[in-house]
Design brief:
Largest sheet: 7 strands, antiparallel
Structural class: alpha+beta
Number of strands: 7
Strand content: 35-45%
Distance between the termini: 36 Å
Shape: globular
Number of helices: 3
Strand order of the largest sheet: 1-7-6-5-4-3-2
Length: 164
C-alpha cells in the first residue's frame, strides 16, 4: 500500500512542537493507540479521544486499522498508510460518525519526527477532502479557527506527557 494522500481538492493545516525526547520515544508515544487519549484532548467544540479499538492485531503495519471513539460517542476509523520508524507515518481517516460525514469523505494525517538542536521536532500535517463548494467553505473556516488550535494544543499535550 502506498501513501495515497490526494494533492488536489484538499484543505491542509499543520502544527509543530519541539520536545525534549528522542525521535523513537516521540514516535512510539504519538502513534500508540493506548496513549492517544492522554494527549488528544477536547479543545473547544472538538471532542477528545475517549478510547481506541484496534481493528487488527496491532496498529504498526501498513493497512492496519483502528477505530477512535471520541467523547460524546462519535467515531472515525484510521488506516495506517505509511510507517517509517522513527521518521514519519501517515494515516487515512474515514467512516466519520459526526458532522464531518456530510463535509468530507476522508481526512489524512501525516506525522514527521526530526532532530533539531538535540530535541525532537514533531510536525503534524492534516488534510481534509471536501465534497462540494459549501463543504469547502465550511471546512476552511473550521480548520482555520478550530482545528489548527486543536492540533497545536494536542501537540503541546503530547510534549507535556513526553517530558514528564
Amino acid at each position: 500500500m502506498q501513501n495515497n494522500i490526494p494533492q488536489k481538492r484538499i484543505l491542509k493545516r499543520e502544527a509543530t512542537v519541539l520536545v525534549s525526547s528522542t525521535k523513537e520515544e516521540a514516535f512510539d508515544y504519538i502513534s500508540s493507540s493506548e496513549k492517544l487519549p492522554e494527549w488528544l484532548k477536547k479543545v473547544g467544540m472538538i471532542p477528545g479521544a475517549k478510547h481506541v479499538e484496534e481493528l487488527d492485531d496491532s496498529y504498526d503495519k501498513i493497512g492496519q486499522q483502528r477505530k477512535v471513539i471520541f467523547e460524546g460517542g462519535s467515531s472515525a476509523v484510521e488506516q495506517l498508510l505509511t510507517r517509517n520508524f522513527p521518521m514519519n507515518y501517515s494515516y487515512k481517516i474515514n467512516q466519520f460518525s459526526n458532522f464531518l460525514k456530510n463535509m468530507s469523505d476522508a481526512a489524512y494525517g501525516e506525522l514527521f519526527f526530526d532532530t533539531v538542536d538535540a530535541q525532537t521536532r514533531i510536525t503534524w500535517v492534516y488534510s481534509f477532502t471536501y465534497k462540494n463548494v459549501l463543504a469547502r467553505m465550511f471546512l476552511s473556516l473550521f480548520l482555520s479557527v478550530s482545528y489548527k488550535k486543536f492540533m497545536a494544543i494536542s501537540l503541546r499535550n503530547a510534549k507535556g506527557e513526553l517530558e514528564k
